[in-house]
Amino acid sequence: MIAYDHPSRALRHTARHTLSCGFLDLAPVFMLRHSLLQVLRAKACLAACVIAITACSSAALADGDDTPFTNIIALSSQRLALAEPVARWKWAHHEPITDQPREAALLAVIDSRAKSAGIDPAFAQLFFRDQIEASKDVQNALFDNWRKSRAPEGTPPDLAHDTRPKLDSVTNALLSALAGVEPLRHADDCPLRLADSIARWKHLTRYDSAQNAPLTRALSHVCESGGVGAVG
């Protein structure tokens, strides 16, 4: 049996052989053509797969670019959710919403930890001041509702042993999130990208639309230029 280094040569040899014998047996020719078509189809399929994988990888990378924004949105939302048990405790104990000594202590800790983490202390201070003010916005709104209608029932969660440890945990996570978002906050399109991330976050979660204004305030200085674009 003769070995051929390319299917087309085998095809030509088969054709010549069958003609020289005085008859034309097309079966080997069709078999070889079928094999060639299979090879070509396999190559085309492989090329299509490579293109598809490349496209998917590119899309994944593009989606991942705004992950730091998503992280900081999620954590800020989590912190705002803790404003309700804080407000309940203050209401039950007739405490004012503003606690300046505690706010000052928190900002002092943030300043020190930001320096240790390589985060711009001014940015960290501004960001956490926004978190404090946004939380107080939620608490003030709750107090107003309770004055107008009915006060919350039941015993509120313990502030020192339950709610504040949760706040401390979110604070730690937010500091890490700030380190991730800091390289992105100087870009001209930062407010629009942040707004897009907020819109996706709201779409994917059971987001309370009543928190729109507090969340906007909490994120108002994530971007160096300020603002969060058009938040829906």
TrEMBL record:
PROSITE patterns per record: CHORISMATE_MUT_2 (PS51168)
Boundaries of every Chorismate mutase domain copy: 49-143
Pathway assigned to this chain's UniProt record: Metabolic intermediate biosynthesis; prephenate biosynthesis; prephenate from chorismate: step 1/1
Molecular-function GO term, any one: chorismate mutase activity
E.C. designation(s): 5.4.99.5
Record SUPFAM superfamilies: Chorismate mutase II
GO BP term (any one): chorismate metabolic process
Signal sequence region: none
Any Pfam family: CM_2
Record field: transmembrane: none
Keywords per UniProt: Isomerase, Signal
Enzyme class: isomerase
Protein known as: chorismate mutase
Upper taxonomic lineage: Bacteria, Pseudomonadati, Pseudomonadota, Betaproteobacteria, Burkholderiales
